[in-house]
């Protein structure tokens, strides 16, 4: 699964379509400040995951060039759509905190906040789907992108069913560029 940052690929939308939240006094365990909800999508056109990975950045100031990421979660708006993901989707909560990323102590609170937001704000929920489609139209590829140290990149099974089985066994693995 190859994953690309929407606002890295289409930076001109950052000013208008990047969701953020500001907590002037914090919110429960969430500290005060600004939180940016960066979006990452799979660009493998063989995959129909209909999933977004949200990486939450917490800039220390308006000009912070390297804001730390404080939570990463994974969400699908259509859990039954893709054969490879269906089993994972049945076993995982949706959305879930991504186990391949370090999470801050208040990541569960951010996840709860975001889940409420995406359920209530239909415009935002729709925008995520639009971004998924838009990014895949721009950068989607049917070729398999094996990460540099993926052992299967040296031994790619010829058979499609076997490739899908392998992908299924590592559902959370992806690279962010
Ligand atoms: Zn996918």
Mind explaining what this structure looks like?
The protein has 177 residues and is of the alpha+beta class. The protein has helices at residues 6-9, 14-17, 83-91, 107-120, 122-139, 160-169, and strands spanning 2-5, 20-23, 33-42, 51-57, 69-76, 96-97, 175-176. The chain has one domain (2-176). Residues 148-158 and 168-177 have low confidence and may be disordered. Strands 1, 2, 3, 4, 5, 6 and 7 form a 7-stranded mixed sheet that branches.
Q: Residue-averaged pLDDT, rounded?
A: 84
Strand content: 15-25%
> For the terminal residues, how far apart are their CA atoms?
12 Å
User: Would you identify the regions where 5 or more consecutive residues have pLDDT less than 50?
Assistant: 148-158, 168-177
Overall, the morphology is globular
Radius of gyration: 17 Å
Number of domains: 1
* Beta strands, count: 7
Provide the list of bound ligands, each named once.
Answer: zinc ion
Structural class: alpha+beta
Query: Describe the biggest sheet?
Result: 7 strands, mixed
Order of helices and strands: EHHEEEEHEHHHE
If helices are DSSP runs of H or I spanning 4 or more residues, what is the number of helices?
6
Q: Give the % helix.
A: 25-40%
Oligomeric state of the chains in view: single chain
């Amino acid at each position: 699964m190859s994953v690309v940052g929407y606002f890295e690929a289409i930076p001109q939308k950052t000013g208008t379509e990047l969701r953020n939240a500001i907590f002037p006094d914090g919110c429960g365990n969430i500290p005060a400040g600004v939180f940016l909800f960066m979006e990452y999508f799979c660009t493998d056109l063989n995959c129909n995951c209909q999933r977004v990975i949200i990486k939450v950045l917490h800039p220390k100031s308006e000009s912070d060039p390297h804001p730390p990421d404080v939570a990463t979660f994974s969400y699908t708006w259509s859990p039954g759509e893709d054969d490879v993901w269906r089993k994972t989707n049945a076993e995982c909560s949706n959305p879930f905190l991504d186990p391949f990323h370090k999470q801050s102590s208040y990541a569960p609170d951010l996840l709860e906040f975001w889940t409420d937001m995406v359920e209530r704000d239909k415009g935002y929920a729709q925008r995520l789907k639009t971004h998924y489609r838009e990014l895949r139209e721009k950068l989607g590829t049917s070729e398999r992108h094996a990460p540099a140290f993926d052992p299967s990149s040296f031994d790619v099974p010829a058979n499609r069913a076997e490739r899908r089985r392998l992908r299924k066994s590592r559902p959370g693995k992806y690279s962010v560029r």
